[in-house]
Amino acid sequence: MAYSEALAGRIRDQLQHHDNYSERNMFGGLAMMLNGNMCCGVVGEELMARVGPDRYEACLKVPYVRQMDFTGKPLRGMVYIAAAGVDSEEQLSTWVELSETFALSLPPK
Predict the structure, then answer these.
(1) Quick one: a GO biological-process term for this protein (predicted)?
(2) Which helix (H) or strand (E) is 18 found in, with range?
(3) Domains in the chain, start-ordered, CATH in brackets?
(4) Which of 3, 15, 65, 102 suits a disulfide with 29, CB 3.0-4.6 Å?
C-alpha cells in the first residue's frame, strides 16, 4: 500500500533531530521509530499515532480520529487520524508530540 510521502516528510521534519530516529515499513505504510519503539507513522493518507493506553479514550473523542484496527481488532493505545485532522502544522505537531512523548517513555529496544 502506498503512503503519503508529503505527510511522511512533514513528520520527518519534526522528528529527525533525534539521534535515535529511524523509519521502518510497517502496517502497509511507514513507521517512525524513536529508540527502536514505534512513535507514529503514515498509512495511506492517514497519520498513525501511538498515544498510549492512558490517552487512548480521550483521543478517540477528537474529530477525525478513529481506532487503529489494522488486524481486525482495535489496537488500544494507537489511533488513525484522517488527513483533515492533520491539515495544519499545529494539528500535526500536537499528534506527533503526543506520540513522541509516549515513545520516549518506553525503554529503548
Answers:
(1) methylation
(2) none
(3) 5-105 (3.90.1150.30)
(4) 3
pTM over 0.90: yes
Which H or E run contains 87? none
Nearest by Cα to 84 from 39, 49, 45, 55: 45
59 HSE (CA, 13 A, CB side): 27
Identify the pLDDT of residue 7.
Answer: 98
Low-confidence ranges of the chain (pLDDT < 50): none
C-alpha cell of 45? Answer: 493518507
Q: Angle at which helices 5-15 and 89-105 pack, to 10 degrees? A: 60
